[in-house]
UniProtKB/TrEMBL annotation:
Positions of the UniProt region annotated as Disordered: 26-54
Record flagged with keyword Transport: no
Domain NB-ARC, chain residue ranges per copy: 62-172
Gene Ontology biological process: defense response
Xref: InterPro entries: NB-ARC, P-loop_NTPase, Plant_NBS-LRR
Protein name according to UniProt: NB-ARC domain-containing protein
Top-rank taxon, per record: Eukaryota
Highest classification ranks of the organism: Eukaryota, Viridiplantae, Streptophyta, Embryophyta, Tracheophyta
MF annotations from Gene Ontology: ADP binding
One Pfam family it belongs to: NB-ARC
Amino acid sequence: MGGCCSTHPRSSIKFGKQIAKKLQEVKDQKENGDFSDVASKPPPPSSTERPSEPTVGLEFYLNKVWSCLQKEQVGIIGIYGLGGVGKTTLLNQINNKFHDTTHDYHVIWAVASQDRPVERVQDQIAKRIGHSNEGWKSKSLDEKAEDIFKVLCKKKFALLLDDIWEWFDLTRAGIKWL
């Protein structure tokens, strides 16, 4: 038989019984198991490209902010100015630069509206990190902050927060420094 069969009948019988046992286990698993969901959703990409207009006269600031982001000791960068000067455009360009380069950041874009800014930012962060579900809506601000913190403390992330009109409590949103 070309070496495919054992010359020892006892080992062949033992091996055959092991195979029969494994096949029965597989059959039992197939009968008792629930295979309706055999794969989970893939994790969200580390960054998503945003539609953006070309920067006119903002290249210096874009390069300056990007070089600061490359430094390990930089924790927060603030971009401020009058309405219409290009802050959102600059943030879009930074976001897209993350998208176009290899990095280990999880990039989160959020807009802090004037109406309930902390809650709105929490919801956007949760959606981005895959925690936005039915149970999420019923949680308190503090519970949401704890959930966000538990996920983000294990990741290197960049939170691009747009449209801030007044002081914003990052800790209350779940963003803390260790």
